[in-house]
């Protein structure tokens, strides 16, 4: 400090003043000497001058010190402390002169530097945290891999054990096969010996059989003779009966021949006498009828002619009547023309007219009657003619009858003759039949004697046959027993062969199994290497993590040496910078920066304040940056808002509108032809989520599952697949039975085969919130600028679409609108 | 003009009944053999000869355009100016007397007949009798033609007689 003082401005000023002082004294002395005053006067003048200058210089110094040196010193010391890494300066910035402005600039730059460093610090803290987390994760991975490795080793051991066991089995089976084969061989020997026994028994049986057969043949022959004799007897008996029957029938024939001869005679007589006479009489009668018919017809025809004549006469009468009528009419006309004189004449004319009219009427009636008569005559003529033709037919028939009678007489004569002939021949026949009958009687007697003898012979043969049969039965029994024995033995042999074959197959299978097991063993050996490799890589990663961790710590340590300006909140006012935080939505911070830059430019223009983008790595970064006052307002997920609200004073400003709506829904999707019908069906199934920090792909689906009584423990498997499209794909590919996505994605992919199992309640979209420390007026102007931003203007459209194509504005909102989400998060224990 | 009681010869054509003043009627005849002459005007059906006198025929059925199913046919010879003309009708029924009260003026057209043909409509008991005005039965032109044909016929007659 002492050394520095000589180089300080203050020291230079003091030297300058001292120089001025000396020059002033010299000047005063010079003036006094040149004025040739007395010494006293010179002394006084000099003294007064010196005192005046000294006084002036002193006051000037005081002023300078106050205005320049002290502030400069504090700036200097601030710069010093800045150099030492202490950014928490407090400079007097009340004055607005150059030094004051310098101070506030230094202070501002220190603060912004402080802000940046704070964010760096936060970043490095986050890195450390992440690294720690990763380390823990890797530890568990490493542990798991170790365990896996052990498990594989165990498997390998058990495979080996299995292998040796199957080898044993294989050995045993082979032994079994060998012993079975041996057994089979001895069995075969036995079979051969039994076969031999069977063969000799069969031969014996054959011999007995042939004996038996010849005896039987003998017996059969005897029986045949007996049968033949019986047959002969029966046939002779039958012949006899037949002869008798013939005899009796011949008698009947004779009798009927006699009867028919008689009948024929009778017929002949009757036909020739009575029959012919009556036929002739009939013919005569009919002919008489015909004649009378013909006469009647002539009469009727005459009648017809007469009536025609009457008709002609009637025509004449009609004509006359007509004429009379006309005359009467003309007379009446004349009478009328004559007036009074013609009156009498007129009466007569009228009467004539009446008469002629009546005549005309009667004539008409008669004409009708005559016509009827003529018709009837015509009918009668027709009937007559029909009668005549019928009579003619009658004559024909009678003549035919006569002819027939003649024929009958003839045939009767013939049949009588025939009957006579029959009578004669039957008498001869009867005689012959009697002769036959007698001869047959003799044959019958002879045959019965033969039959008796044969019967006795047959009895003897029967006895022999019985004895032989018994012998044959015994032989057969021996033979069949031996055969059965042989069959059984063969079956045993076959069974043994089958057993032997089976054991061979088993042995082969076991051998195959063994080789398979060896393969498995080899594969397991190989697999065993994999976890080892994994372990190695885990170790490597761990190493690098540790390096990272150490580096982060170093950074942290470095940063700790810097005293940061942490006096929050930053008072924003006038042209103060407002830091606008952005929560990244699945994109890189740089992309987010591009998207939001137009909004910042718009806000700058509208509010006259300076907005600066602060992109944050994740929602945890948002929460921390807000609580530390590093950002003043933020575009964020409502989840982040709710989480922040519990830790820091924060206030909702607006919500983003998507196509005119602030909310949207989440939907649980499943494959349309899959087994899931209701949310309940998802129990013990696989479920795909998006990310744990997503409303529509995590919170809402989990809440719906929970309402159906399904917790994460009730799912067979669940996973975070990130983008919603991945969830759709996984569900369609049946990697998961169901998943939760936002409804726009669900609708877009529905046609690919999705089914909507359940929709959630309306969910809130992104919001913009401010730090409560922001002055009310700034909040109000920010809010107004945001609400007035509409896609109906060209500017608004470009600003909003830069952020998200479907955004079309911002609208006022309040905590109440997040109540649904809050409830869900509380239920899921996320708050 | 009319006397209290007038007498009419009543005839029929088809279903219609007509009357002609009795004083105009000369005679009622059965239709006779009709001669056709090439010189005759078309409205005449032909001529008949009654007691040596040639009389032209006018078929009223054709003139009034009434088709008649009746097979019967009569000719009424009437006076026409100084000439005679035969009217062919279905039947002539009787002579009736109509009082002037029983005849009413005809309407403009009655059953398709023009008023000029009619003197009036007579009502007797249930019957309606169309009273014909014979003078207007032929147009003036036809009347001339009729006269000419009368002359023609007389000529015919004379030539035939001389022959």
Secondary structure layout:
The complex is a heterodimer of chains A (831) and B (163).
Chain A: H1 2-7, H2 9-34, H3 39-83, H4 98-338, H5 343-561, E1 577-582, H6 589-607, E2 610-615, H7 619-627, E3 633-636, H8 638-645, E4 650-658, E5 663-664, E6 666-671, E7 686-689, H9 695-707, E8 717-720, H10 724-732, E9 738-742, H11 743-749, E10 754-759, E11 763-764, E12 767-771, H12 776-787, H13 794-803, E13 807-812, H14 819-827
Parallel strand pairs in A: 1-2, 1-3, 7-8, 7-9
Antiparallel strand pairs in A: 3-12, 4-12, 4-13, 5-11, 6-9, 6-10
Chain B: E1 5-13, E2 16-21, E3 25-30, E4 46-50, E5 53-59, H1 60-64, E6 74-80, E7 83-89, E8 91-99, E9 103-104, E10 109-110, E11 113-114, E12 118-124, E13 127-132, H2 140-162
Parallel strand pairs in B: 2-13, 5-7
Antiparallel strand pairs in B: 1-2, 1-8, 3-6, 4-5, 6-7, 9-12, 10-11, 12-13
Quaternary class: heterodimer
The outline of chain B comes out as elongated
How is the biggest beta sheet of chain B arranged?
A: 6 strands, mixed
Within the largest sheet of chain B, what's the order of strands? Answer: 8-1-2-13-12-9
Series of secondary-structure elements of chain B, N-terminal to C-terminal: EEEEEHEEEEEEEEH
Arithmetic mean pLDDT of chain B: 82
Shape of chain A: elongated
- Low-confidence regions of chain A: 567-574
Number of helices of chain A: 14
Biggest sheet record of chain A: 6 strands, mixed
Q: Total strand count of chain A, please?
A: 13
Bin the strand percentage of chain B: over 45%
DSSP helical segment count of chain B: 2
Tell me the greatest interface.
A-B, 10 and 13 residues
